[in-house]
Amino acid sequence: MNLILTLRILGALLLCLGGTLLLPVPFSLFYHDGVWSAFVISALICFSCGGLLFGFCKSSKDLSVREGFAVVTFGWTVFALFGALPYLLSGAIPSPLDAFFETMSGFTTTGSTILTEIEALPKSLLFWRALTHWLGGMGIIVLSLAILPMLGVGGMQLFKAEVPGPTADRLRPRIQDTAKLLWGVYLLLTAAEALLLMIGGMSFFDALCHSFATLATGGFSTRNTSIAAYNSGYIDAVITVFMILAGINFTLHFQLLRGKLREFHRNEELRCYLGLIVAATAVIVGFNWYYATYSQLGENIRYSVFQVASIITTTGFGTANYETWPVLPQYILILLMFIGGCAGSTGGGIKVARILLLFKHAQVQVFRLIHPRAIRLVKLGNRPVDKEVLQSILGFFALFIGTFVFASLLMAASGMDLVSGGAAVIACLANIGPGLGTVGPIDNFAHIPAFGKSVLIVCMLMGRLELFTVLVLFFPSFWHK
After folding, report:
1. How far apart are the C-alpha atoms of 104 and 461, rounded to whole Å?
2. Within 61-200, where are the H helices?
3. I want to staple 108 with a disulfide (CB 3.0 to 4.6 A). Which of 263, 272, 306, 460 is the partner?
4. β strands within 383-464, DSSP E
5. Rounded distance between C-alpha atoms, residue 150 and residue 9, angstroms
6. Confidence (pLDDT) at 473
7. In terms of Cα–Cα distance, which of 161, 162, 179 is closest to 170?
8. What is the distance between the alpha carbons of residues 424 and 438, in angstroms, rounded to a whole number?
9. Which tens digits make up the pLDDT trace of 160-195?
10. Is 156 within 8 Å of 145 (Cβ atoms)?
11. Domain locations in the chain as residue ranges
């Protein structure tokens, strides 16, 4: 492990963070919320620490896989630590742990919050919350690939460690070009949603913040009651569409912009993802109609499809209190929490591709019991899947479930009830935001004990970086040759 090189890159990332901390300053001055100095001081602290690390830690060695994993994990942690400074310096969140929780929730696009009065927060801090989502959505590490050339190192190690999903697709031979293309698509979709939300009556500020949160599948809103505060079918529809788009592999969006419509139709994971949304919505609409949860069919469909899209994409926006729904729809939403969006999207969870390959692998194993001499390969999109990929997926699934169980036990030890504790863990581990029980869609995480919040912070980080990136740091062999 080359700690000098790792610290140098972390210093460069802190310099970038210092620049982004200045972006809320114009909003603070425009709205006269009086907290602009908190952002300026925070930025100066980042510039100072980042400059010292970047200037004094010099290394001529290349970036290896070890440093790639370390930079990603420590980079996310450092961003959350320094990104919490505006909350602390402004006095909006006086507790360092709560401020760290809120910022980690933002950068990991989880959306779980400890705030009880969101609308009372200064506008610039609301913008900062949304901005942490947007930066974390596509990946602050991918964004930072633009600065890696000046470090004299390659960036594929960082890309592989950060990009969500079983594999990291490269759209162009050079990793810097790939990062620029992904961010170009990301920016285009964000601008399109913001424009459509403004047409629907949202202010520019709210439209921008909610677009940041939607495309990042984060879920931080500027309103206490989330999207329900607008009570607009049009706004619900726009956000639903863009949540679904954000849950799709961004390489497919790029292919669509190039006019390759066949890539959408031929992608088996995408068909499964859309099929899950349609099937889950149909069942929930049916049960809500049978139990007369809503008096009108249109209202039933509107709220049902929104919550299905919000949960499976791990966005976490709310327009309805799904805890008042029948039991089966609640179970379906819990299952969708585990599944998550597509590989290569900004969504969290296990990912549709992994779930699909797990079922295909199980199907092949049953087939081999009946036909032991037959040769049948696991395929995704008519392409055979390597055994190494299948082993990685099986390992990830086991680790995900194991982490969920262990973290749930820790939450129970902190004093939380069975439903709330387990729901809080999956809400953070899958980067969803709201859960069930005392952390449901109309509640928050402020009441959770300090130990429980610490557990959930670790779950957010592990969930966003897909377990392996974080867990590998705990192996002694990782730090030594």
Report:
1. 7
2. 65-83, 85-90, 96-107, 123-138, 140-143, 156-162, 175-199
3. 460
4. 383-384
5. 11
6. 85
7. 179
8. 9
9. 666 666 766 665 566 677 777 888 889 999 999 999
10. no
11. 383-479
